[in-house]
């Protein structure tokens, strides 16, 4: 939409808005590849003031809003609200949560490194075939046996087999479980002897479960030398793979968790929690929800208890929801929609939908509200009513930062006006000062 000609203000004298800024935008730069949308923009928004940003279409106004509200991250410069950067601080809790995510990732990687399918066979499936019902103690013992590369017993086609812990090697087959156990113990002793080697002190962990063979057991089956050698070295191999997977997964998981946290460090909900809310150039309502429900969306973070409170409908949750409904009705009455609380939002007129967006933004309890062309598409009468509403918002102690092309609205309500052209701030001052600035006239009227 082409901006309206610069008009003159018919409002009362402007308020004195000197003081420390509530919002401090310092040398803000936003780049999209080689395109510089906003270049080194400085802007101070004094608490209790109405500050407007104007400029031709494509000047970078909405980009600046998106950066302030957390949708974009600045390429350079900073945005401070109440003297603080609009981003989550790195706390000890954040660090330990990242460590926890890394540990979980490491355990998953360790399981994958030692072959999760064979791990499941050894720890869960085999125990349900050869022993009593699954218990945590037995599963832990089988897990230790898997990492010690012990021999095990499983069943197939009605016969008992002596196998390696991962099931890859079958060493003996018998029809009797007792005989299979005796063979397993004797073969385990043979593997352990190769693992220990001559002249070394045996690793007692390898012999912990070895018992004497049952009397009368048949002669040990012949096992190829290379199989025994491989089984003897399996303990070190599987432990090496497990520890490597654990540490690699731990490092990658922790780094990934911190990277995700960093990307969301300045997300819109962090900015909203700090006390800034906004409306959009294109209306963004939930058109199939009621007017009241749309405003309740803005009050969601004020309802304590979280998901569990809503799930179990605790008394505190019910009281908070009723308080939120009352607050939502108050906001709708403030913008003139008290009689439309149960209407579907999509059925409202264009101007009323704009008012509903403002009510939802106010419901968040924000101290600074960003209005992106709230009078766009309105006729002169609606724009005048909108200007009155913006002035009423200031009387509530809410600071307003406004983008608008209706110059009559801008000149009426603004304490200060900043002008952008091709991403660069070319002027700033009171409405009277700005409308006399030659650079502003050049940008809007082409030097006419």
What does this protein structure show overall?
By secondary structure, the chain is an alpha/beta fold. The protein has two domains: 21-91 and 267-445, Rossmann fold, CATH 3.40.50.300; 94-258, no CATH class. Helices cover 47% and strands 18% of the residues. The chain has helices at residues 61-68, 92-113, 116-130, 136-147, 177-196, 204-207, 225-263, 268-274, 291-298, 306-312, 315-334, 350-363, 380-395, 407-413, 431-435, 438-445; strands at residues 21-32, 35-46, 50-54, 76-81, 84-85, 151-156, 159-164, 170-174, 276-278, 368-372, 399-403, 416-421, 424-429. It has a six-stranded mixed sheet, sandwiched between helices. A four-stranded antiparallel sheet has the order 2-1-4-5, covered by helices on one side. A three-stranded antiparallel sheet has the order 6-7-8. A hairpin with a 2-residue loop joins strand 4 (76-81) and strand 5 (84-85). Helix 3 (116-130) crosses helix 4, helix 9 (291-298) crosses helix 11 and helix 13 packs parallel to helix 14 (407-413). The two termini are 19 Å apart. Residues 1-14 and 199-217 have low confidence and may be disordered.
